[in-house]
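Case study 2.
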Amino acid sequence: MTVPERDPRCTGFQVDLGPRRDGVFPSRVVSSRDETKVPSGFIIDAGTAFDARWDLRLDSRSAHLRHESLPASFTNRLGSPALHRIHLLGNANSAPTSVKRPLEIARLRLRYQDGTSLEFPIRLGIEIEDVWSQDDEGTPGKPRVGWRGMDPNAEISGRWVQLYHYTFVNPDPDRPVEAFEIHSTMALPSLVVSGITVD
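Prediction:
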């Protein structure tokens, strides 16, 4: 599959989720999105720009049931040690309404240069939601919808396809950060990351 070049408007703040030396390969590339009408390339939500050419899907129990081989974690080393926020754009796969919420499906870990770390939960129903969720945009207490649209399956069933945008705030921005990591908790749903931006 061919993947478009990184948009010249992208800066070092937009993380490139493409194939990496650590063996992490995204499960889907932009050409497969043509049918789903999910936005690709350089997209902006609420003033935050994302490099959304790739979808990175982490390992989960549902992936094992389908005999899929997916990475259990993702690591990104920072070019600059200053980190205030991490913006995540994505959704969950295989998370029907029967799955009890909130459910932690992944963890975001900040690794500081002094050897310490800080973790944030990524929970279904709070930070993220299923791609097929039908919650109205702006529903209080629900994950914030960053994009919604239709694909052929959604049009048949009358459901939306949605991406969610959540911002994690570093409580100690003056402490230099070496890297951040996202780890699957191996719950039933898979975390799908479509874009990450740091500032």
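DSSP finds three helices and twelve strands in the chain.
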